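Reopening this ticket.

The earlier resolution said the output was attached, but the attachment link was broken on my side. Pasting everything inline this time so it's all in one place.
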Amino acid sequence: MKRIYLVLPLLLCLLLTGCKSQASLPHDPSPAPSLAESFQETPADDDLTVRLYFRYQDSAYLAAEERKIDLARSDAPEKAVVEALIDGPEAASVSLTSLFPPDTQVLSAARQEGTLFLTFNDALLSRYPGESGGTGNDEFILRRKLCMASLVNTLTECGLCTRVQVLVDRSADAVTSLRLPASFFRDTEDDTPLGPITRDESVLLTPYNTACQVLDAWMRRSHEELYQHLAATGDQGDMRPGQNQAYEQFDLSPALLSFTLSPGVVSHDGHRAVFSCDLVLHADGQDVMLPAFPLHLVSENGLWRIPYDHLTALFAAAN
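Inline output:
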């Protein structure tokens, strides 16, 4: 029993000493590690599931492709994600196209707090095949706007940063800053260095933006665009009709003069969305007000579509 009493004070002394050492450590004023910082500690053989944004056909919008990124092939998850964006969409994603100029490479990725600093080679500033420049070239401007939007929206959505500072290694040129120049977006001689780029959801084919695109295509009588927004199958499993049959139905539809759209609601499983739309239609020589009509969308392969039977229900509502 005496031996036990001798050991207890020694244990108490050790415990008190340990607590004192811990308390005497300097306070770390830095914030808790962010989600992005936690990715850096991910084992090298882990995969990272991300949504990569690419251009949807020739539109002014981006659509997502879900991909597993092999982190073992890169020294940083941010760099691996950007390399996947540069490589472009998978072959199965026939509606999506890459947005980076040929031979673009990401050289390094470094993060300071919420800002991710990405350094590219100077191929980022080059033209696309067959492209002509000029400040009045809308496609030139749009393509580069979408390029940066695809980069920042992808990285911010998977939690790797809050904004992106793009740097370009132009070692062959006498430049004072590595930051992306203003001429990137406008094809001018303006080399004003640009600051960090933030997230832009206005160019994403979200459910709301897709619903607006459907109604806008109807209002402009763009049969081709409207057909592209049709779901492959309807709620009852019926297949989307062929183009000729669909175009005939589009021709018979009333004219859509204007519309307003509610923010909408997405189902818990993320596969359906419904909006309340107020429509002004012109049919049989008169204008018809159609308030609070439900517009339904379904998710197919990462893209939002309208079932054919729901679209024709909109057409018939004016009668």
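Reporter confirms the inline version is readable. The first strand starts at residue 47 and ends at 56. Residues 275 and 288 are 19 Å apart (CA to CA).
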